[in-house]
Amino acid sequence: MSTDVVELVIESEQAMQRLAAVMAKHSGPDLVIFLSGNLGTGKTTFAQGFIRELGFDGIVKSPTYTLVEPYDLDDEKKCYHFDLYRLSEGEELEFTGARDYFDMDSICLVEWPEKAGAYLPEPDISCAFKMHDKGREVRLVANSEKGKHVMLRVIADASL
Questions:
Q1: Is 23 left (phi over 0), alpha (psi -120 to 50) or beta?
Q2: What SS3 state is found at 139?
Q3: Which residues are within 8 A (CB) of 9 and not within 5 positions of it... i.e. 6 or more apart?
Q4: Domains in the chain, CATH or no CATH each
Q5: What DSSP assignment string belongs to 62-127?
Q6: Does the pTM exceed 0.85?
Q7: Which of 103, 109, 27, 29 is nearest to 62 (CA)?
Q8: 135: enclosing H helix or E strand
Q9: For position 92, what pLDDT does the model report?
Q10: What is the DSSP letter of 141?
């Protein structure tokens, strides 16, 4: 199996959260993950499982109206969950100061990244979600060395 691309069929919400938890377990700061796909394909469910695995025990909500939801996990770890569905053009993201969130101490999960155009950094991992007759299909693509490192560890993790 290639460390650059992994395709999985996820049959339940619990399985989606388990995939996200495995990825989170092997992720560190300064990581950008794009979550793409139509409404209802599992992007927010994935984000919830990911953020919970990082240690957040509160409610993980979709930032559809606020664009970004920050999660302070501890003194050193931060996660920002973006939902860009409501952007009408990418430049709007620039006006929010979002560029400041993409720093060396943060993991950024970005739903609907295509709405921002060139106003986002390149992702380390791209996750494409789509409907499948058995649930959801998730295609993970490593776009950087950091992304490949995470993917290699996810592939090797026996809990999937």
A1: alpha
A2: strand
A3: 132, 134, 135, 136, 137, 138
A4: 5-156 (3.40.50.300)
A5: --TTTSEEEEE-SSS-EEEEEE-TT-SSTHHHHHTTGGGGSSTTEEEEEESGGGTGGGSPPPSEEE
A6: yes
A7: 109
A8: strand 135-142
A9: 85
A10: E
Predicted pLDDT at 75: 65
Give the sign of the dihedral formed by CA 64, CA 78, CA 101, CA 40. negative
Mean pLDDT by 10 residues, the chain (160 residues): 80 94 92 95 94 90 81 82 89 83 89 92 96 94 94 80
Separation between Cα atoms, residue 10 and residue 29, nearest integer Å: 26
pLDDT, residue 39, reads 92
pLDDT of residue 103: 81
